[in-house]
Amino acid sequence: MDQIWLYIARNANFEIAERLVDSITSxxxxxxxxxxxxxHRPNLGEGMRTFPVNNYRIYYRQDIRGRVRIxxxxxxxxxxxxxxxxxxxxxxxxxxxxxxxxxxxxxxxHPAAPNWCITV
Length: 120
Fold this sequence. Notes:
Blueprint: H1 2-11, H2 14-25, H3 27-33, E1 39-40, E2 49-53, E3 56-62, E4 68-75, H4 81-84, H5 99-108, E5 116-117
Parallel strand pairs: 4-5
Antiparallel strand pairs: 1-2, 2-3, 3-4
Helix pairs in contact: 1-2
């Protein structure tokens, strides 16, 4: 997410970057409450799903406890089938900027927070 934010902030402006990151992260509670909402993507790994937000795709799965694990957020144009293959994707990259703590606090205060897991 830090790469997305920085790219948009540099090429557009900070407000647009903030709105985009907010629209992506505000989707996490929706996915936590409705894990089957995204498109099933068995070609990417067991239980993998994707969900579109603007021109980005959230890659996620449910763990054995039923929590949603956000694994990737990638721009749709930059994703090629061969770039993921059948390799299990690494965990999501959240901002390493000072706003990370604020973002995680905001997400963890959401009522659906016990149903998801974001690792940094």
